[in-house]
Design brief:
Distance between the termini: 69 Å
Number of domains: 2
Low-confidence stretches: 1-5
Number of strands: 8
Mean pLDDT: 87
Strand content: 25-35%
Structural class: mainly beta
Helix content: 10-25%
């Protein structure tokens, strides 16, 4: 039985200067509880954030990036992909607990008594949202032959092209005449 310990990406608020402070973290996907179906995270997730303290607000921006192993949606080959997520959000520190709600996703509210700012969830969301819906090993990936299944990037096949529906022949003639 393995015990999973979540490691948080925390910024100590007392270390944030009004002119800005840089924070750098390197955590594994397992530590940050990041997972996605069909995606492997062999490299650590690097996080570079600049935080600026302006009165009762902390303005944070930076990026999180890692290299993943993912399957091409056309040829089904596994390839390495650099994933970069832009992080940008504002944290407001308030005195009263009844005002500690915010509907804005780019705006977070915490009590003034809080000593650290956990940005783990922002890193998780950023990396997962930066993953492509249809990953491609290259823009000109030819994919698989629909007839025999051979990878058309590696070799050609002798399959005949699909016979088109004859109802489209009139339209084809129109384009052929131009």
């Amino acid at each position: 039985m393995s015990l999973l310990i979540t490691v948080f990406v925390k910024i100590e608020i007392r270390q944030i200067k009004p002119e800005g402070s840089e924070f750098n973290f390197s955590k594994s996907a397992d530590e940050l509880e990041i997972s996605a179906e069909g995606v492997k995270f062999p490299s650590p997730i690097e996080v570079d954030v600049t935080a600026i303290l302006t009165g009762d607000e902390i303005i944070c921006q930076g990026e999180a990036y890692t290299e993943v192993e993912i399957e091409c949606s056309r040829c089904l080959e596994i390839f390495d992909l650099l994933v970069k997520a832009h992080l940008q959000f504002v944290v407001q520190m308030l005195d009263t607990t009844k005002e500690l709600t915010s509907d804005n996703e780019d705006f977070e509210v915490i009590p003034k008594t809080q000593t650290s700012l956990d940005i783990s969830q922002r890193v998780r969301e950023g990396i997962l949202l930066a993953l492509p819906l249809k990953p491609l090993c290259s823009e000109d990936c030819k994919g698989l032959c629909p007839m025999c299944g051979i990878n058309l990037n590696e070799s050609e096949c002798d399959c005949l092209p699909d016979k088109t529906d004859e109802r489209w022949d009139a339209l084809k003639k129109l384009f052929d005449n131009q």
